[in-house]
Amino acid sequence: MKEIYGRVALIGLGLIASSMAHAIRRAGLAGEIAGTAKSEDSREIARELGFCDIVTDTLADAVDGADLVVLAVPVGVMGSVAFEIGPHLKPGATLTDVGSVKRAVVEAVAPHVPEGVHFIPGHPLAGTEHSGPRSGFAELFDNRWCILLPDSRTEPAALGRLKELWRGMGADVEEMDVDHHDLVLAVTSHCPHLIAYTMVGVADDIRRVTDSEVVKYSAAGFRDFTRIAASDPTMWRDVFLNNKQATLEILGRFTEELFALQRAIRTEDAELLFDYFTRTRTIRRGIIEAGQDTAAPDFGRGGAR
Amino acid sequence: MKEIYGRVALIGLGLIASSMAHAIRRAGLAGEIAGTAKSEDSREIARELGFCDIVTDTLADAVDGADLVVLAVPVGVMGSVAFEIGPHLKPGATLTDVGSVKRAVVEAVAPHVPEGVHFIPGHPLAGTEHSGPRSGFAELFDNRWCILLPDSRTEPAALGRLKELWRGMGADVEEMDVDHHDLVLAVTSHCPHLIAYTMVGVADDIRRVTDSEVVKYSAAGFRDFTRIAASDPTMWRDVFLNNKQATLEILGRFTEELFALQRAIRTEDAELLFDYFTRTRTIRRGIIEAGQDTAAPDFGRGGAR
Hints:
By secondary structure, chain A is an alpha/beta fold. Chain A contains 12 helices and 9 strands. Chain A has helices at 15-27, 40-49, 59-63, 78-85, 103-109, 156-168, 178-205, 211-216, 220-229, 233-242, 244-266, 270-289, and strands spanning 5-11, 30-36, 54-55, 68-71, 94-97, 118-120, 122-124, 145-148, 172-175. In chain A, helix 4 (78-85) packs parallel to helix 5 (103-109), helix 7 packs across helix 9 and helix 7 packs across helix 11 (244-266).
């Protein structure tokens, strides 16, 4: 047990914030955890579950005296929350966030950060398709990456403490440049999500195939898509609106590539298809070797434990 | 233990055939299991693992005296295998297959089926991203669907026995029309696979994002794609070449829909995105209720057990 911050304030009480609370407690990383959320329901549930020491009704009360403030709200409201809490932040405190896009968050939040407060954007690469205060659990960040995005003016001591907190919650920490982050995530997360959403939408739309058939014969491929496409709609809407440029760039590449494969099917270019599918298999092996997944077959059941 | 067939011959010794052997043994559904494969390596491994009672070097020896013959080879070679075994099939025997597309298999196989042999196409909706004789396991078909595709001339008794076999291996059996099968599977399996292959290929191709970054920051979305895209290249090449029409139709719908979402991102149509993502969430709930998946979060680790 090693206390890194006296008081931590979690703004937003969804999957990430509630998991942070559980993980902070598991390792005794904070003296006290305060939390708040816009929704009265979420605050009530958080009080009932007791993963925060105190759940406040206002943002000002939550951040009062906090050594670390974590913005765990949809990307689209980060700016307005920062505007509201700015005047109440303790000098010397660290302000971070957990948003899935970073350039837009930096632009929305940075103007409201007072002198003497350390703003260090962050993004834990962890999640499930569930959301809300009941969905959190202490193990969410174990062996997952947390990307921190300091700049040249970031104070090393403040950065070091925040790294220690994430490591204490089980994560591996990496630093990255803000714009590069948004491109990497467009490739590895944002576009795959949009594509999964699209395919699930198409399936629902084919009138000759009934919804119940789609559901019933949801073999491996499609079922994994629906899992992805079940993620929080507000969060994902904000991701796409706020990582517009990189998402559109990667989608352009994707459709170009998809058209090439479509053409290979139409022209029955067996060799192109075989070579392509062989190449993608290699990438999968790299992921297993990097320890981000296991080689265990999923039995066509998509991840139940 | 209820023996349904005296001798079963498995042609091809990959994931599906080896799993069938394990599942048939588990429930004692056959007096004897014979198997063969084109690759000498696969035959050697099958002998070593011992999941067949006899592994033969030739197709003729494998099907000799068999009451049930199962074609578990890539869709592209079903016709030539049927041509070769046709003269050796026992009168009254049942011939089935496990191919992922059905119209092309029926067209390739039916002409070689002698009078008095019951040809009943089949498709078990089960699999993992692994392939080969070492990848099989007895539980693969448990609670999965197996679609059988009889026509008006199929003998009810022969169909009944084949259904019993699949149920004995743990599967739930449904009947479907051949062309409708190919459309349903294009939606639920073939197109999702092609899309996953494409996205994995794009990721590999973005030069500003290194392969190691893609691998390292392979958050939920992309990792699920790589799992899908790691499936057997030969099998999938044949699927697309042999379910060309339905695949291209669904891909056309998919790109149309993707362009609409792309446009919504470009024009920042927040409402359209939110509504779309909310609708896809509902479909996911349907799949959980239909029992084809569980609501358990996958912890962002994509299905390790």
